[in-house]
Write a structure and sequence with these properties.
By secondary structure, the chain is mainly alpha-helical. It has a single domain, classed as Aminoglycoside 3'-phosphotransferase, Chain: A, domain 2 (Alpha-Beta Complex). Helix content is 54%, strand content 8%. It is built from 7 helices and 5 strands, in the order βαααββββαααα. β3 and β4 form a beta hairpin. α2 crosses α6 and α4 crosses α6. The model has no long low-confidence stretch (mean pLDDT 93).
């Protein structure tokens, strides 16, 4: 069902200005999540994470370093949960190609997946997508800017933003294994996880 036509529908990925992209992304993370009561059928982040982590551990083919990162991710998410943050309805797949600009210059979001969790969790997928748009020589410096910008816009500390990114890196890598993408996805995730360790 077509709810709204977006013309010309240029994606945020088309914008070459890195700092502009991350400010738009941070603004989306800040304003998209909505309140929802307990009477819903949406998947819950904590349950998705447990199911994915348990499966990867049972298969025992991802390597010790990645398996250790799952334990760290569980600890980090537990710390986040202990802060009693609101559980909200999230987009669930917020990345550059799901953010489109209209002819009026407004940015709209498409293709929501729907997931219940803490608002900060939306930042992780955007981080991964942004990371992949940078060269190996520039990515480390640029991602420092990413973390600081998201922290400022969201009113969070940098560690909390990094935790969201760490969680998404581990969870999405687990899903890649399930999809048969191969162990090469694990190494890509580990490169991001190692970098994020400086904040944790």
């Amino acid at each position: 069902m077509l709810m709204e036509r977006i013309t010309p529908g240029n994606t945020l990925k088309d914008k070459t200005d890195f700092e502009y992209r991350i400010k738009i992304g941070a603004d989306m993370v800040n304003r998209l999540p909505v309140s929802i009561d307990d009477n819903h059928n949406f998947p819950v982040y904590a349950e998705q994470m447990k199911k994915a982590f348990d499966r990867v551990r049972a298969e025992n083919r991802a390597g010790n370093e990645f398996l250790s990162s799952l334990t760290i991710a569980e600890r980090l998410y537990k710390e986040l949960q202990e802060q009693n943050r609101l559980k909200l309805l999230l987009h669930g797949d917020l990345h550059h190609e799901n953010i489109l600009r209209t002819s009026l210059g407004e940015w709209k979001v498409i293709d929501p997946q729907g997931r219940i969790g803490e608002k900060i969790l939306e930042a992780g997928r955007f981080f991964q997508n942004e990371w992949d748009m940078h060269s190996k020589t520039e990515v480390s410096v640029d991602m420092v800017t990413f973390i600081s910008t998201f922290a400022e816009v969201l009113g969070e500390d940098e560690k909390t933003v990094a935790v969201s990114c760490y969680l998404d890196c581990t969870l999405s890598a687990c899903w890649s294994l399930e999809d048969g993408s191969g162990l090469e996805k694990i190494e890509v995730a580990l490169s991001k996880i190692r970098w994020l360790g400086r904040y944790l």
